[in-house]
Model the fold of this input.
Amino acid sequence: MIGASMPHPVIEHVQAMSLTADLVALCHREIPEPAPAHDMIRFEDADFDRAADAVLAKLGADPIWVFAYGSLIWKPGAEVVEMRRSTAHGWHRSFCLEMHRWRGSPEQPGLMMALRRGGSCTGIAQRVGDGDRHCTMVKLLRREIGGPLGYAALRLIDLRSEQGPLRALCFYADPPEIGDTPEWSMDRVAAVLARACGHAGSCAEYLLNTVSALEAANIRDPHLWELQKLVALEIARLHEVADARR
Done:
């Protein structure tokens, strides 16, 4: 349940998305959950407890803010009591983490979104409930850890909002997995997102949900907006669908 939240924004973006639920439905396939890879690091209960304690020690008495730039916008990891539209300067969204589970498979790997250095990224800062900070942090970590990477690239980043600056936790900001690897072209990313699907759903569905949630908050990421057009066109081409919006 969300308590205090942002005022409902006046929607300025009137152009319809090219990527639609009907196109996304064409990407869905029933894929069984694969067994964990033998070298995949898994967190046990004690690991989550230790990680939560370490993060809370860094925060001290400060409130727990989490920067939602992707799926956390439309699927928060804990109870949210306040939201602020915020911008992280020096970071930008990028589909740059290959995944063979969740929204990808060993046969058709997907791409997961992270933040990379450079540019700016506007999203939602979420202040989560303060009732039991340890349990709240464990819940957040359980959601983000244990995916295809087996760890959380978690850091504190600076945000700017209309209400003033704040520091927020951010998952997968400059994760070591990407290192100095160059970013893929938008066409190459679109080709993957139009095809990849795993037991948790398709990459196209993730993109649709994220862009839709951003639009509802009156946030338009130019890169994601162009990407959803390219993904829509690629899905339409693959499935011989006419009239995909440009």
Remarks:
- Helices lie at 21-25, 45-59, 71-74, 133-144, 186-193, 203-216, 222-238.
- Residues 222-238 form the longest helix (17 residues).
- The longest strand covers residues 80-99.
